[in-house]
Design brief:
single chain; six-stranded mixed β-sheet; 17% strand; disordered N terminus; Calcineurin-like_PHP; metal ion binding; membrane; metal-binding
């Protein structure tokens, strides 16, 4: 997927301020409004839009939705709050994913399918309502089962060639493997982690990159799941940058563990990768949320990452969030690798992701020189489902505009 776009000029502060204030007010209310909508809308569509169910059905169904509405935030609080109870987190995350799928398809089928049935003259109003109900339940059940299998499987490898105009011929064919957003968490995925690392090793990459969000939880708590990362092989280097989730869970502990496992944390610094007489600058920055974490020395500092690098050399930059590409393009970076978006993870959440990020997945151009590759992620966050947003392990083969000729 290639999406070419130019950097838009920044709007004036006067124009931006009112929408930002309105957005901030809405964001503060989302934790209160969203759970109610996620459970109330499916309840109404499935039980109270003309179906005329037998007496026990509607009250029992309503009680089930109320239980979900009350239980989900309670489980999320116990699972992801101070207590960090993994079983509660699993319940809360699963309820969140289930409610989102039910909500999305209740809205879509509740409007589109009902309208189509009406136009087609299918049955009475009650017949159409029951068809919609069973369609919502059937589609949701299939998508949740399939989405769970998609989330838990080892990602397929996505391969693509990326041509960089400034890349020297000696570096043509350099193989870069990218994993990101592994999100080791409440569900124990140590075996999955080992299989992911085995798959990465089959790629015989020169450079292996992890662009953050290793886990949800501290390095001490998720060590067993992260340990297989120490088995990853690269002919040149293994490099890592922090994601936003590290800053929810003692980021320095993750930096130290990755260093212990043999990965080189690129915290606002770079290394030089040389081959065939040509050189590539491989740089990395902390996540854009690092500075607000309050951790000393943690911030996204591109100038520091490039300090001392020859400006005529091509630069590969690791930055967790795609929106860092505005700064990368201004600095003339050749290629930025990012994750963070999960490709939306559960359709149609990608529409909300696009509000915050300039790219959802794949390769895109920003400004005159800069390319951005956004991975859909290797693992999943929270709800153990992936719906129309498959995970990936990425192999990027860097190409020079003038590849070496065969002897």
């Amino acid at each position: 997927m290639t999406d070419t776009s130019d950097i838009r000029p920044a709007e004036s502060a006067a124009v931006q301020q009112p929408p930002r204030r309105l957005l901030h007010r809405l964001m503060r209310r989302i934790p209160l409004i969203a759970p109610v909508l996620l459970w109330a809308v499916p309840c109404w569509v499935l039980l109270y839009t003309g179906q005329h169910w037998p007496p026990p059905v509607a009250p029992a169904g309503t009680a089930l939705f109320v239980l979900g509405l009350v239980g989900m935030p309670l489980a999320m609080t116990h699972g992801h709050g101070r207590r960090r109870r993994d079983r509660a987190a699993i319940v809360g995350d699963t309820l969140l994913g289930t409610s989102w799928v039910l909500f999305a398809w209740s809205v879509l089928l509740g409007v589109v399918l009902r309208l189509a049935l009406t136009v087609a003259g299918v049955g009475e109003s009650e017949d159409r309502a029951r068809i919609v109900t069973w369609a919502v339940l059937g589609v949701s059940a299939v998508l949740l089962g399939w989405g769970y299998a998609e989330a838990r499987r080892v990602p397929r490898v996505r391969r693509l060639d990326v041509r960089l105009p400034r890349l020297g011929t000696g570096l043509d064919g350099l193989r870069v493997a990218l994993i990101t957003d592994t999100h080791y968490g409440p569900l124990d995925r140590a075996r999955w982690s080992a299989r992911v690392c085995e798959t990465v090793n089959t790629l015989e990459a020169d450079l292996v990159c992890h662009t953050g969000d290793i886990a949800d939880g501290t390095a001490e708590r998720r060590r067993a799941q992260a340990a297989p990362l120490g088995t990853v092989r690269a002919t040149r280097a293994r490099v890592y940058v922090t994601g936003n989730h590290e800053y929810y869970s003692e980021a320095q502990g993750w930096v130290d563990l990755m260093d212990e496992l043999g990965w080189e944390p690129l915290r606002n610094r770079h290394l030089l990768l040389e081959r065939g007489g040509d050189t590539l600058v491989v740089a990395g920055v902390d996540d854009v949320t690092a500075e607000s974490s309050g951790l000393a020395g943690h911030r996204a500092h591109l100038a520091g990452a490039l300090d001392g690098a020859d400006p005529d050399l091509p630069v590969l930059l690791l930055a967790h969030q795609p929106k860092f590409v505005d700064r990368a393009a201004a600095a003339g970076i050749d290629l930025q690798l990012s994750g963070h978006t999960h490709g939306g993870q559960i359709w149609p959440f990608h529409h909300l992701v696009r509000i915050d990020q300039p790219a959802l997945a794949g390769l895109s151009r920003h400004g005159a020189r800069t390319l951005l590759y956004t991975s859909r992620g290797t693992g999943f966050w929270g709800p153990p489902f992936r719906v129309f947003a498959p995970s990936e392990i990425t192999l990027l083969v860097l190409r020079s505009p003038h590849p070496p000729t065969s002897p």
